[in-house]
Amino acid sequence: MTTTAIATQQFISSTQLLEHWQGHRNLTRRVIDAFPEKELFEFSIGGMRPFAKLAVELISIAGPGLKGIVDHQEEKFSEEAFQPKTKEEILAKWDSETEVINLYFNQISEERFQEMFNLFGQYEFPVYQNILYFIDNEVHHRGQGYTYLRALGIDPPFFWERF
């Protein structure tokens, strides 16, 4: 059997990946902001968590996950450290975590994206797949937020407007 090496070109740069992720974060921030305060913390459908809890999960994963990747720390995931009481607290933390993401993402070398990393001591995948998990998880939960907003009679932001 003969094997042939195929040269591949890079599909997306790390800078473009970060811009794509930050576009999703901008949109998710607008979804958080679209909720009335009471409903952000209390409204749910079918036993799903209120959107405030989903936002706290996202806040608790992205920045700490990237920090863990950069520092080679496989610490357990925890949502307990941040217990917001207001929408403004969530939005302020969202904004500060955006800066944490920028700080740590930019410390990951191109070579490290291919390294295996055990995210939160639970998920052993290449670093790039862990980052895609952060994005996928956010998109998934934002979809729940869209459902909640529509059930509340609120038009959510257009999903393609990520600025």
Question: What would you report as the Rg, rounded to the nearest angstrom?
Answer: 17 Å
Number of strands: 2
SSE sequence, one letter per element: HHHHEEH
Portion of residues in beta strands equals under 5%
Helix content: 55-70%
Oligomer: single chain
Report the CATH C-level class.
Mainly Alpha
Report the end-to-end length measured between terminal Cα atoms.
50 Å
Number of helices: 5
Strand order, biggest sheet? 1-2
Query: How many structural domains does the protein architecture include?
Result: 1
Helix/strand-derived category reads: mainly alpha
Q: What is the overall shape?
A: globular
Task: Assign the CATH superfamily.
Answer: dinb family like domain
Would you give the CATH topology?
Answer: Four Helix Bundle (Hemerythrin (Met), subunit A)
Protein name: DinB family
Binding site for a divalent metal cation: 141
GO molecular function: metal ion binding
Keywords: Metal-binding
Layout of secondary structure:
Blueprint: H1 14-34, H2 37-42, H3 51-71, H4 87-105, E1 116-119, E2 123-126, H5 127-151
Antiparallel strand pairs: 1-2
